[in-house]
Amino acid sequence: MRILQSNEKYLTPSIVERCFTKGKLTSVDKQMTGNGFSTGFLNLKVRDDKIHIIIVPNLAVIEEKEKAYLEDSRLPMMHKDKVFTSGNRMKFFYGNSFDDNFEDADVLMFVADSFIMRGDGIRHISDRVDKVLIDEVHSVHQQSLYRKILVDFEGRVANRFSSNTALVSVTATPILFARVDIKIENKYTPEQVINYSKDRKETIERIKEDISNGENVVLFTNNAGVVYNLSDKHNRSLEAKFVVGNNLFNSIGKKVTMKHNDRSKLTVVSSRGFEGFDITYTDARVYFFEDRSVEHESFSIGNLYQAINRVRKGAEYVEYCRQEVSDKFRAEFKDIKKELYTFISDTSISTEKKLKASYKKFRPYIIKVQKGKDISLKINRIAVNLYLEQQLYNLQFPQQGIMQFAEERNITFNKIETMPSRIKTRTDRDTAIQYLFSNKDEIKKRDSIPEDYLLKVNSLWAKDKVETIEQIGKAYYKELDMFLIEKNYANDYTNTSRQEVSLRILGDSDEFSELCDYILKMYTERKKAKHSRATAKEKIANFKKYLPTIIAQLLMSFARDTISFDEWRVAWRDYNLASKVGISQLEFLSNTIFNVTMDEYDIASCYPRIMYAINGKNLPDDFYGGNKKNKIAMNVYFNKFGYDETATASKKHQRQNVVRKLKSFNIDDNVITWLVDNFFESKFRGDLFNHIAFYEEQIILEMMAIIYDDGNCKNQGMARRHDSVIVFGNEDNLDFIKDFVPKAFPNTKGWFK
User: Fold this and answer.
1) What domains are there in the chain, each with its CATH number?
2) Pairing of strands 315-323, 192-197
3) What is the per-residue pLDDT across 244-302, written as a single tens digit (0 to 9) for each?
């Protein structure tokens, strides 16, 4: 690691320039927020016919830079207050803009999402890109845990450019366990005292006193209850500048009447405002709330440092009110790096199987790498480092492991002797309705509950004290009811018939139980008719275990404005809710319970059809024999097809038997050769299945896109169910489906029934 010394308040372009190395991605810890690394980069002189690129994590940052650039460009070049001194022409890419013109600017600035979405356009200019800066990279890393588009972001950025491009990722708060190539030590690092406490009630009283004394107060929290306890207890109203995400905004809106005022001496900020947002208060008093027992209220020392430094003129007082993690907390891994390496390296389990629910504890920490039909796994280093940081930060504060971070930033901690104390605020149904209506103008202004506000279908399990059928029904009823209350915040929304049906069933324990029993009966009859006694018994028992939750989630999914099921992908298949029940049970729910027609369009004889298509052939109409007499026997054989090392017969003899058996089914000779050459000696039985599933997914998604018709479809929703497309409440003419030909196999026919 290299150390660079900065003797100025703001980093000079020359220091910024020294961080870039041709053909390398360099990680830079600038240690101090607001020291002008990105401004220094923007002022680097761009060589003739070259381009610089800067990527930022969120919209707020790029909007602030664009505003500053436009204001700056109006000033004369020699103006003493001018920020952008290089004369570089800049262009900004964010939101829904489809502008791909990169030719009329020296510096291109992207929000991370916009950069990824413009991949093809950027590739056309990649040889002209001299330098790339990924700014506030810690935010990219943290968001990658719940935003798939940001997973392995730095690697994906680097792969877009030639070996001549120099790349830097920079932050003042790198993940504690992340690699750092360059550290910038700043001479002018101001001293910062962070007072830390445990009693939320006492901290809130201090805030109230500050407000009553006319102080400038900044409150960082993701907890609506904190805001509630600050409000006027007589009329539960609060005037403040609210810089919060929509979820928190709506939660607060169910508890108090919010009076937004940009000039207020109180600013309420959620994690949305940890960066990309400057507070210009003088002598501000800053309060930061955290609860390590609650996921959405758990942060890091980096988040704390970023947040309190949003106050650009410095804080007079900083208090960090922290609730420690529960004593019952147990870490998921003993040694995450070792366990992950062992898991990924285990050759006895196929890659596809490793992605199934039985190994779900590993999923957040691995990256699925797709190259055509092939899938491999690699460790998600960022997710692992964040996990290690989380475990460290769960220890009693202040932890020894963060002291170096604090010392480098001239931070000292002062303990306020208090006893742990939490606050509780419950919002009953009528109260939520009352306050949402009182906040209707603010909600409309920010569009925090838009017309397409999506109903979330969460998993409620035993850990949430949701175990019995009655508890499950009531829990999901509460969620649906509150969602509809939010949709009706202005008292101008009418529930749809599907929403009323879902409410009625979930709200009536007897009706919900009867529906579960009937679905179980249908499922049982089907499995007993299809499988052996032992197999059927096992499948029925497993289905019964999760049945109430599955049915509740299906009812919730049907209650959406447009019927849809959240995806659960494993390799090339989507095991969403539509696949958790049989097609007849799904049809019963749609047709009988919700009075919505359901049409299924499935690939005719999907797997053999794809096998034939791969070999440039159409599947014969009588492939399974008269009346499909060979279908079951053929499917059973394909499931166990391949070389058996434990068998007494030689490999050669087994191969001959396989060919003979396939010929007995009248399978085309070319297809037999392809099967035997590629899959007879496959290590895993599922290799053939997964190979064909790759094409199955392509075909199904292509068909769904055609039916969707860029949003012009006339139906109540669509879903993929394995090798079929489900269309609910269709009003379109879909006769074209019978003539559909997939792009992958242009000379074939007869795909969909």
Assistant:
1) 2-186 (3.40.50.300), 192-328+394-415 (3.40.50.300), 336-391 (no CATH), 450-596 (no CATH), 606-739 (no CATH)
2) parallel
3) 999 999 999 999 999 999 999 999 999 887 776 789 899 999 999 999 998 899 999 99
